[in-house]
Amino acid sequence: MAVTKYTNLQKLMMMYVIAWSISPPLQIDTEYRLLAIGCVAVWFWQYLSHNSLNLPDIYKYSIGFAVAVAVIGFIKYQDFSSLIKPMGYYLLVFAFILNYLHRNSWNELEILIPFVLILLVIFNLKTLSIIHFNPNAARDLVRNDESTYSYLRQGAGGYGLLYPQVCIFPMMIAWLMRAIRKNRLFFAAGVAWLISYVLFILDSGYTIAVVATVVSLIILFFYKRKSITLAMTVTLVLIILIVWLIGYVPSVRNFLLDIFDGTKVAKKVNDIYMSVTTDTVADSIFVRMQAYQTSLTSILKFSVLGGLWFGEIGGHSALLDTVAQYGFWGGYLFINMMYCVPMQIKKTTENAKCLQIANASFISTLLITLLNSAPYQFVFLILIFQPILYYDIRKWGNIKK
Fold first, then answer.
1. Separation of CA 335 from chain center
2. Residue 401 forms part of a structural domain
3. Residue 2 covered by a domain
4. Of 170-184, 190-204, 300-314, 326-340, which gets the smallest average pLDDT?
């Protein structure tokens, strides 16, 4: 059975790791990454000094996966610094195990809700101010090189800041709808976050974020079935329908252009229209399609064990890249770790509202991890912050099962 009490030191370590994972200025320098690893080590040291670590097999396999990732990286680059490069996978495994160990004690981490929301609001607004003075900053921030460091040190973030928020968006909406009656302070913090989130999406114009937000919202409120497979089918149909409406129904396209006039979303609407109705394809779409094709080719060539250190990956899909490099064994573990929260919800409740939340949460995370590479920030908001929100939803709704 999981323990139900954690030390204040463990909670402090958790706060730093989460703050590091969502704070652009802390993600640049190696010392902050090493400090995050140190906090993880201290957390486990505290845990193991009072408890034995009895994990189900899937969690033991995830540890083996992390070791394999490190070994493969070292073989590929022949450099000990390469052991730090796949930190995202290490943190995914840590957050996955932490999710299990905290499964009966999420109430102890409720203090993280206002802490995380305040941080997100600060960095969202800081990013908006940077984009306001430099409209090209949103595009510049998607690069993964030193050219973005000046923005990051000022507190501005790109995909790494926004996409994790897209993943938790359905859970946040469900939480907000209940917080308004149960905790006005939490509700105020949530509304501040929602406003900053919407403004961030409108000003950044990240297409995947817009589509995932809209589709997951539709799933949350209108999809009433239990099946995740059917939810994925509905999602595909919705995306095709959105593209078709923009491309071939002028009234819809003009309506969207009027609503989003003056934002980068309007430009994305025009990009979709041009891609559908002409032979012109936006550069960003072309690059993504090429990247997906590269990963899919590796999956077909090295389907069982993966490309390991010799195969190519596209670098634009966390899910496809994982399967391409580590085979279906790695993909299976990645799926079990990354999507464990909605899967846990579906296994432990028959409540219709909770099942809707689970399906919407799964779809938002699937769209982001399928269509974009995953930075460190994904794991803690998805595997630690979401269950805390879900704990409040169940508590406030008096949902027993």
1. 13
2. no
3. no
4. 300-314
Q: How many CB atoms lie within 10 A of CB 176?
A: 17
Give dist(CA 394, CA 386) in Å, integer: 12
pLDDT confidence bin for 316, thresholds 50/70/90: confident
Highest mean pLDDT among 94-98, 190-194, 268-272, 371-375: 190-194
Phi and psi dihedrals of 265, rounded to 5? Answer: -65, -35
Percentage helix, strand, coil for the chain under 3-state DSSP, each rounded to 5: 80, 0, 20
Kindly report the backbone phi and psi dihedral angles of residue 364, in degrees, each rounded to the nearest multiple of 5, phi listed first: -65, -40
Contact 36, 166 (CB under 8 A): no
Identify which of 315, 368, 382 has the alpha carbon closest to the alpha carbon of residue 208.
Answer: 368
Domains: count for the chain: 1
pLDDT surpasses 70 at 199: yes
* Number of Cβ atoms within 10 Å of the Cβ of 101: 18
What are 208-242's pLDDT values in tens digits?
Answer: 899 999 999 999 999 999 899 999 999 999 999 99
Total residues belonging to the chain: 401
pTM for the whole structure: 0.91
Angle, CA of 247, 366 and 342, to the nearest 5°: 135
Please name the helix (run of DSSP H) or strand (run of DSSP E) that holds residue 318, with its range, or none.
Answer: helix 318-338
H or E segment to which residue 303 belongs: none
Provide the token pair at 40.
């993880």
Supply the range of the domain harboring residue 209.
8-396
Copy the structure tokens of residue 128.
């908006």
